[in-house]
Design goal:
Layout (H helix, E strand, L loop, with lengths): L12 H17 L7 E4 L6 E3 L3 H6 L6 H10 L4 H11 L9 E3 L1 H8 L5 E5 L3 H12 L7 E4 L3 H8 L7 E5 L8 H15 L4 E7 L4 H4 L1 H11 L4 E7 L11 E7 L5 H16 L6 E7 L2
Helix pairs in contact: 1-4, 1-5, 1-11, 7-8, 8-10
The structure holds S-adenosylmethionine.
């Protein structure tokens, strides 16, 4: 436990998919003026340097954000991708992307004055960095930070007083139990706040717990009579490689606009980020 540091993966293809979806969800929910509560259950450090530290060791951004940024310079991209790139560039003063904002920073920048953001982080080092980073933001008064286990605490925050909520669940799955905790957490959260929008990130791995995650989420959504959307992006299919080759997002109560936006963006993401002929995407949904 606690060997995971998100800086190693900042700006990776998995971050791109997750943050692209997340931005669309927030912007859709903000079309109504009512206050929105956003919970980021697994926050990380908030923002990352890509040119030094852990990110420079792993270089995952080379096959992620740098590849996409370069592609967008010579090809047209969907409005969703253009919007995502703008959010990333907004944290960078120079033309070159040297800083990658994690979910807490992207979400913080999107807050309107009536919105609230709640961040959870358990790692003893990451929580200190997160607090410091968030403290620098003008939105910091709208943000609560909890050094607590979000799987245990989420239900206590549901439903939010505003009754309009987005929950981003982005575990590291470092602990195999995370798969089980996720299921319990989703059951409890939906019992208390069935109309919330829940976005769950997952790695696409051959291990049983990972491969069965989408089906478990579909069952939970069906029990609560909820619509869902599943999206996966695979950048390669090299059988012996140990790096993450594909990831997905499972969204419960997705906005009706999400599927169309992703259908526009995914072929471009495959073109820009695909590394071999195994690259591709999955886009499925079910409406109640
Ligand atoms: N959401 C971040 C982003 O997109 O920039 C990345 C988060 S990273 C994948 C997962 C984080 O969750 C790690 O920093 C880890 O320390 C933290 N974490 C793991 N288990 C947790 C738990 N039960 N409650 C809160 N945080 C947890």
């Amino acid at each position: 436990m606690f060997s995971y540091r998100h800086a190693f993966h900042a700006g990776s293809h998995a971050d791109i998919l997750k943050h692209l979806v997340m931005i669309h969800l927030v912007e859709y929910l903000q079309e109504k003026p009512g206050a929105l509560t956003i919970v980021d259950t697994h926050a990380g450090a908030g923002i990352y340097s890509l040119i030094d530290g852990f990110a420079a060791v792993s270089n995952e951004a080379d096959q992620g954000i740098y590849r996409l940024a370069k592609f967008s310079e010579i090809n047209s991209v969907s409005p969703g991708i253009a919007n995502y790139l703008e959010c990333i560039r907004a944290e960078n003063i120079a033309e070159e992307i040297a800083i990658y904002p994690g979910s807490p920073f992207i979400l913080a920048r999107l807050l309107r004055s009536q919105d609230r953001l709640k961040l959870f982080e358990l790692h003893p080092k990451e929580i200190d960095i997160l607090r410091h980073n968030i403290g620098e933001l003008k939105q910091s008064k709208q943000i609560d930070i909890y050094a607590e286990d979000s799987f245990a605490r989420l239900k206590g925050l549901m439903p939010p007083p505003s009754r309009r909520g987005l929950v981003l669940i982005d575990p590291s799955y470092e602990d195999k139990q995370d798969y089980r905790y996720l299921e319990t957490t989703m059951e409890e959260a939906l019992q208390r706040f069935a109309t919330g929008c829940y976005a769950i990130w997952y790695p696409c791995l051959s291990r049983r717990e990972s491969a069965s995650l989408p089906d478990h989420m579909k069952k939970i959504a069906a029990t609560h009579n909820r619509s869902w959307l599943q999206v996966e992006l695979r950048v390669e299919n090299a059988p012996k490689e140990r790096r993450l080759q594909a990831s997905g997002m499972f969204i419960i109560n997705p906005p009706w606009t999400l599927e169309k936006q992703l259908a526009e963006s995914l072929p471009t993401l495959v073109k820009a980020l695909g590394q071999d002929r195994g690259a591709g995407f999955v886009l499925k949904s079910f409406e109640v």
